[in-house]
Amino acid sequence: MPSKTRSLIPEHPPTATHQLIKTKEGTYWRAKRGLFTPVTLNSSVQAHADAMRAAAPAARRISIALAPYTADLQKGRLIAAISGRLLRCLRTEGAMRLSALVGLELQPEYPLGRLLNLSYRVESNESEGRLRVRMPKSDVTPVKLRNRLVDGFRITAVVLSGDPAEDAGLHSQVVDTGRLPAIGESGELTLELAVNVDEDFLLALRVECFEEGGPGIHPGTRAMRVIGGKMRDSPGK
After folding, report:
1. DSSP codes of every residue in 80-101
2. pLDDT tens for residues 58-110?
3. For the chain, what is the mean pLDDT?
4. Residue 234 placed within a domain
5. Count of structural domains, the chain
6. Which of 40, 55, 109, 127 has a CA-to-CA distance to 200 between 20 and 30 Å?
7. What is the C-alpha separation between 152 and 145, in angstroms, rounded?
8. Which domain holds residue 177?
């Protein structure tokens, strides 16, 4: 016996208010959700939807802020990866924090550990508002040489700070080693940046190789990873 709601549907209703349903038992028209009864979500589903609406645009803002340093990377579904971490942070801590991205590879197919031979350590002194990335002297080639053309490398530290929930809430600063020779031993390297102790931040490390004086062609000659964040001293690699 047809339902009371279905009995109110004309034989050929307008598609703006109805949809044609096809099943093994036959085909029939059904009113779209919300036409007769308001659509409601339970509290948990509604909370998830609200969190998604906040995390997705925040992830896009972070991706845009990092774009000057990631333009030549094969980022894959980077925005989705950032959004997922922000969403988990929002659920557990009630806020979206940049430090939730610690450990994120910005070029997943070519992670930092596959390119950089040097060990590193992140040190933060919030009383001084200073952040340091230290790489001790090493007797190994500082970067893995993909081919004979690689003759130099550069390491860049990027600090992104602020509130990703705000349209203009993010700002960045950067420091790098300059171009260094890729062959031979490496002396101690230190990258130091100032940070605002009142703001949340992330610290990303980028490594790029040069081939015969120019940028490396293969994507494996570049890598970038989020290695630290506010109140999180990283033991490094």
Report:
1. HHHHHHHHHHHHHHSS--GGGG
2. 999 999 999 999 999 999 999 999 999 999 998 888 889 999 999 999 999 99
3. 84
4. no
5. 1
6. 109
7. 10
8. 46-229
106 is a domain residue: yes
Q: How far apart are CA 133 and CA 204, in angstroms?
A: 10
Residue 236 falls inside a structural domain: no
Q: Is the distance from CB of 40 to CB of 64 less than 8 angstroms?
A: no
φ, ψ dihedrals at 186, nearest 5°: -120, 130
Angle between the N-to-C axes of helices 43-70 and 78-93, in degrees from 0 to 180, rounded to the nearest 10: 130
Which among 96, 114, 92, 97 has a CA at the least distance from the CA of 105?
Answer: 114
* Tokens matching residue 177: 């080693």
Kind of pairing, strands 222-229 and 180-181?
A: unpaired
Cα separations (Å) of 8 from 5, 155, 174? 5, 69, 65
- The C-alpha atoms of residue 106 and residue 225 are separated, in whole angstroms, by 6
pTM to 2 decimal places? 0.76
In this prediction, residue 1 has a pLDDT band, given cuts at 50, 70 and 90, of very low
Does any domain span residue 129? yes
> Rounded distance, CA 143 to CA 3, Å?
70
Residue type, 8: L
